[in-house]
Specification:
The chain is built from 10 helices and 10 strands. The protein is an alpha/beta fold. The protein folds into 2 domains: 163 residues, P-loop containing nucleotide triphosphate hydrolases (Rossmann fold, 3-Layer(aba) Sandwich); 81 residues, no CATH class. The C terminus is likely disordered.
């Protein structure tokens, strides 16, 4: 589904990503882990066009997407969430989710002004898809609430609903359970398992190692901008480089 070859990103000459290469298999969950500052969010931003890569290649379904504009990458079938919530606080929950369908809304100003039957029918279809996504994350009772009044856990689920509403081929999740309590984390974990069983391809950045070890088919480990290990959860768990760079530190502070 996705292939990274020798991807590099520098900030003012300082490397944030150095020669990162790995693949994301179709229909599987790939977890991207590593200490704070390892380059995980930078990697997601380079894949989705938020940041330009300095060098290297990103192939999505065999097509080069490195340094394409974000909206073009989204239209190809890649959706994402952000480490920090990016909701529109004064819009309703439903309208926030419908923004995830912007690429399918059409581009004709004349059609929008005339309110032709085709456009009205399309808007109804997009609204129905948004309602289905909200129901999937148990948010149907809050569709008309302003996003700003939601609890933090509900805001995270709204962002997840917005990410899946366009039925992307690849879903990139940047710390989907950060800030959630144990019950909320378990609920999101169950929903991610359902997405995997439905055949979705996911790549997630996550610090919750229990969640990673439970749902990930493949784990990629970054440290100081370099890929130091790739394998199954059990293989990564036993890797001495990973224990030194990440898992050992986490256990020591737990």
């Amino acid at each position: 589904m996705l292939r990274l070859d020798h991807l590099c990103k520098n900030f003012g000459g300082l490397p944030a990503l150095s020669d990162v290469s790995f693949t994301v298999p179709k229909g599987k969950v790939t977890a991207l882990i590593g200490p704070n500052g390892a380059g995980k969010s930078t990697l997601i931003n380079c894949i989705t066009g938020v940041l330009p890569a300095t060098s290297g290649s990103v192939l999505f379904k065999g097509h080069e997407i490195v340094n394409l504009a974000s909206h073009k990458i989204s239209a190809l079938g890649i959706s994402r969430t952000f480490q920090n919530l990016r909701l529109f606080p004064r819009l309703s929950v439903l309208d926030n989710v419908m923004t995830g369908l912007t690429c399918e809304g059409g581009h004709s100003m004349i059609m929008a002004m005339l309110r032709l039957p085709y456009l009205r029918h399309r808007e109804r279809q997009l609204k129905l898809r948004s309602l289905e996504a909200l129901d999937y994350f148990d948010l149907s009772d809050k569709i008309y609430w302003p996003a700003e009044i939601l609890a933090y856990g509900d805001k995270k689920r709204v962002e997840l609903a917005r990410a899946i509403v366009g039925k992307p081929d690849l879903l990139l999740l940047d710390e989907p359970v950060a800030g959630l309590n144990g019950e909320e984390t378990a609920a999101v974990g169950d929903q991610l398992k359902l997405l995997r069983r439905a055949g979705h391809t996911l790549m997630l950045v996550e610090h919750d190692m229990d969640l990673v070890m439970e749902i990930a088919d493949q784990v990629v480990v970054l440290d100081s901008g370099r890929c130091i290990a790739t394998g199954t959860a059990d293989e990564v768990r036993r890797n001495p480089l990973v224990l030194e760079a990440y898992l050992g530190r986490m256990e020591a502070t737990a």
